Amino acid sequence: MKASGKTILLELLAKKLQAKGYRVYYSMSAIGLMTPVGWSLKDSIPVNDDKVAVLIDEVQSNPASVVIHELLKDTKRKNLITIAAGIPLILRSDEEPNISSKFKFKKSAELRLQSDSQEMQELVAHWQGLNVVDSKVVEDVCVYLQDYCGGHFFSTVKLMEYAFTMPAAIEAAAKSMDALSKYFLGHEFQESKEYRNLLHRCFGEDFDRDTEDRLSRTLAGQGHSSDITAMQRLGWWSEEKQDVLSTFLRNVCLSRIKSASGDDVIQLKVGSDPKENMETIIVKGLEGMQMSDFAEGRKGDTPKTSIPVADSLSFNWGSSVKRAISNIRIQFQSRAREGQVDFACNGVADCAIETQRNATWPVNPDVKGQSMPEHLKRFFPSDNSVPAKSEWTNFAVLNFVVAPGAAKKELVLPASASLREHVYTYVHDDNKLYHGSELIKCPAVLSLQSQTPHKYVPLSKRKMAKMPSPGQAKAFFSSASDGAAAMSRLVHFSRRLVR
């Protein structure tokens, strides 16, 4: 991958060689060694120099360069050293320059920053030395960013630099991890010159239309072996996780999805009820999904990707949200800590949406990530009684029930009524969307059939419909014949008001 440290390695080698008396020549890319430019470089090297080194970066861009081969077999310059750096996965064995000593990383992870590595410890110590936030906060931020960037050196270290040198980021980091996450995923930072430079350095011209399509297919769970190979060639694939490299890369891909054109595209209203906006995001995201977005709905050729079904389902729903709402800013969060959720929605809609697939209520230690309590715990402590310390005051859990027949009759919901309002359930078999235990829309996915249509009524209007009129309340109390019945009706009435 770009910005993984190849150039820095060559620069360090150049300093070492110069210290040993070598005259060092450097080419930024093998593509620059096309004739006649390449010949002019070769011819400019004096034959009588005792020690000469030629360093060539990005050798994969032109591995068959005649100039490189001429340098390697040059018999006139006895002390000539040619060192080339490149991405080995891009090169076929028959394309590689015939360099006598080859050093290859056995695993792609060796090219990335590991959370338990000495380099990581040195970085943490370096940022702690600035004394801008508490030492424990520095450690937490570094772990979070290493996970968010998949250990990619340049993006990880650059975001660390921003976190501990930009005043707004320092203020957010000192407040909470959620606050820092919101800052990095927010409009202010992502429209900054620093962020644009980061994207250019990490991806540059690699994001052409074909590559973008391959990455989108892979993230959607519909990629094939050729798509995975393309990701490997760019260094965007983690062999260890059998997944794309990072949440950062996922967000870059998601950010490039543009809203569709037509009457179906909406804008979230500024100043609207936050919960109304959040439900609109859930509803519109589901509306635009297709059969191919649900793993169980695919037929025919089996995709070769091993990305978890739940992750591809989340990406497909998030992509649908992006196409349906023109002013939405929705991104994945890193999962480096328990309190981070799947999607952060900033801007007009300041909310968090946690997605899950085929939720269960009891915690099953053998099936990690499927129990509803695990996901609610992102926002609540273990007793589910009071909100945990979180930047997200508006949040929801969207449960996709997609296994055939699974939980078709019984929705997986908290016992607490106050928690149920945070849970939405999409039942794929019936194509129905529920808010808590209430059916609110059918068909939920417009491209799929439904037996029993149910017209969608926005959240604010549903709340108004549930509120009893003054006349209903008066009749309700006057009809109570004894104290016990009155108390029972009072409890029932109060529950209706709470809802």
Beta content comes to: 5-15%
Q: Main β-sheet, in a few words?
A: 7 strands, mixed
- How many strands? 12
**Number of discrete helical segments:** 20
- Rg, rounded, reads 28 Å
Brief write-up:
Helix content is 40%, strand content 11%.
What can you tell me about this protein's structure?
There is one protein chain. With 499 residues, the protein is of the alpha/beta class. 40% of the residues lie in helices and 11% in strands. The protein has 20 helices and 12 strands. The radius of gyration is 28 Å and the shape is elongated.
Q: Helix and strand layout, with pairings?
A:
Elements: H1 6-19, E1 23-27, H2 37-44, E2 52-56, H3 66-72, E3 80-84, H4 118-128, H5 135-148, H6 153-165, H7 167-175, H8 177-184, H9 187-190, H10 193-203, H11 209-219, H12 225-234, E4 237-238, E5 243-244, H13 247-255, H14 274-287, H15 309-324, E6 329-332, E7 343-346, E8 351-357, H16 372-376, E9 395-401, H17 417-420, E10 423-427, E11 432-435, E12 438-441, H18 459-466, H19 470-478, H20 483-498
Parallel strand pairs: 1-2, 2-3, 8-9, 9-10
Antiparallel strand pairs: 4-5, 6-7, 7-8, 10-11, 11-12
Helix pairs in contact: 4-5, 5-6, 6-7, 7-8, 11-12, 14-15
List keywords for this structure.
seven-stranded mixed sheet; 20 helices; 12 strands; 11% strand; alpha/beta; 499 residues
